[in-house]
Design goal:
Strand content: 25-35%
Strand order of the largest sheet: 1-2
Structural class: alpha+beta
Number of helices: 3
Distance between the termini: 63 Å
Radius of gyration: 21 Å
Amino acid sequence: MVQQNGETFPPQGDPAPSSDFSQEELDLEMVVVCAGEFIKETSTKNSTTKTVTFIVPQMVGSHQIAFAVGPFSKMNLSDLREYEEDDLNNIRAAVDIFGYCLPGRDPELRNSSLFMSKVSSLLELQK
């Protein structure tokens, strides 16, 4: 162990601490979800480090920026929309709404976000 300013750090080059995760859980792809618009993603040559860049189009306070990293499942909530046949002719361009959840939590995401698709379809019909 190395001590610096009263804090103890493991020496560099030590193996990572063992985890209680299964190999299947360790193999899940990590996804970055952030407020703003995705710009680019860059990786190092050995793919151990990844940098993801987002931009927020208007000025906002730092408390309005959020991000999360995890093995998220992506669900298109726009697929939950319900239209009558007459309404389909009036819709110009549908906006996709995506939801993210941890693996196996899709039913909960669908249930808690159902109102988003209904509000979206209502707003589209009022255009």
